[in-house]
């Protein structure tokens, strides 16, 4: 019996014919990378291949690496295996990886979302025989509100806090979520201040997206300057000494996990906004159906529940273990940055 086109190994997802890994979590000779989040894009590989928009992102995060950038839908062949990258819609530069060999087609999504956020290249359906899907929010309880409605709620929240003379602190991952929030914050309400990790990543992405003006918080930033304004910070800043100088403040978090009130309470967040860079339940099902795939492999998230549901719908579905998770970022990226 021949090996499958893609195998799940202790180093990552492996194409043995091409001798290349997809988003490996241990150092390898050649890696094709879907996007820049640290759980999918790790240090130590000899050669990286990724979408050209992701190149500056992973160089910023990983330093001096040997990386090749390719375009959407650009075919490149390794040992007679045809690869191409297609928009995943997750964050800027995020890709699905299409793998074709001897008429068999697999697609590895990495992380993806179907809602067009206006800053990432929108998700594109890629037909395939086998589809490897994340299941981060693979429960029927997860159903997203349209982005414009969520951003209206955030800007109204900011106005309310400003009227009470308080600083608004909004938490979002330094890559992806923070820039999505920034793009749609209303600068007419007030100034937008940033934590160093978010400011540094935003500067990397400014050549690609027209963002509002931001102000980096430094040791010299006074509390009075922040009152009534907006602060964008990574989740790791919550409860830190960095944030204490901003009293009085109100905290908010933009995440799919804010669907559950318990998550907001556990994280001691004053206000939760349901905004995710992943598919909700309907988005996952619609995406899988559109691919025409008969076989579905479910990875990180609610994979057991989701794959069971798919089997009930007639799919040949199973789960596989990976080391991917919820936009994990390295401690060095999320540390308090003061100039």
TrEMBL record:
NCBIfam families, per database record: Xnuc_lig_assoc (TIGR04122)
Q: Which PANTHER family match?
A: BLL1145 PROTEIN, CLEAVAGE AND POLYADENYLATION SPECIFICITY FACTOR FAMILY MEMBER
Q: Write the record's keywords in alphabetical order, separated by commas.
A: Exonuclease, Hydrolase, Nuclease
What stretch or stretches form a coiled coil here?
A: none
Q: Name its species.
A: Cellulophaga algicola (strain DSM 14237 / IC166 / ACAM 630)
Map out region (Disordered) in residue numbers.
Answer: 318-339
Give the superkingdom in one word: Bacteria
The keyword Nuclease is annotated on this UniProt entry: yes
Query: Which molecular function GO terms apply here?
Result: exonuclease activity; RNA endonuclease activity
Q: What is this protein called?
A: RNA procession exonuclease-like protein
């Amino acid at each position: 019996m021949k090996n499958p086109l893609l195998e799940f190994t202790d180093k990552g997802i492996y194409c043995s014919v091409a001798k290349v890994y997809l988003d490996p979590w241990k150092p390898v000779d050649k890696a094709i990378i879907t996007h820049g989040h640290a759980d999918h894009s790790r240090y130590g590989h000899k050669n990286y291949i990724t979408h050209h928009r992701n190149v500056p992102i992973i160089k910023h995060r990983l330093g001096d690496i040997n990386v090749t950038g390719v375009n959407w839908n650009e075919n490149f062949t390794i040992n007679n295996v045809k690869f191409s990258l297609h928009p995943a819609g997750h964050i800027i530069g995020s890709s699905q990886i299409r793998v074709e060999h001897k008429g068999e087609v697999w697609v590895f999504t990495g992380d993806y979302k179907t809602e067009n956020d206006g800053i990432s290249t929108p998700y594109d359906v890629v037909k395939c025989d086998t589809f490897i899907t994340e299941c981060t929010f693979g429960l029927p309880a997860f159903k997203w509100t349209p982005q414009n409605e969520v951003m209206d709620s955030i800007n109204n929240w900011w106005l309310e806090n400003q009227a009470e003379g308080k600083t608004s602190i909004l938490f979002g991952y330094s890559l992806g979520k923070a820039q999505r929030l920034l793009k749609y914050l209303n600068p007419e309400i007030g100034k937008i201040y940033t934590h160093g990790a978010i400011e540094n990543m935003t500067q990397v992405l400014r050549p690609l997206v027209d963002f509002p003006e931001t102000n980096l918080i430094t040791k010299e930033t006074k509390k009075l300057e922040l009152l009534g304004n907006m602060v964008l910070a990574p989740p790791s800043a919550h409860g830190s000494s960095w944030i204490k100088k901003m009293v009085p403040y109100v905290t908010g978090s933009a995440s799919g996990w804010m669907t559950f009130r318990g998550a907001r309470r556990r994280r001691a967040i004053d206000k939760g906004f349901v905004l995710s860079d992943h598919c909700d339940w309907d988005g996952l099902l619609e995406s899988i159906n559109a691919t025409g795939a008969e076989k579905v492999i479910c990875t990180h998230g609610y994979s057991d529940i989701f794959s069971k549901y798919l089997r009930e719908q007639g799919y040949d579905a199973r789960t596989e273990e990976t080391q991917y998770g919820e936009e994990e970022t390295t401690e060095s990226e999320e540390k308090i940055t003061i100039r």
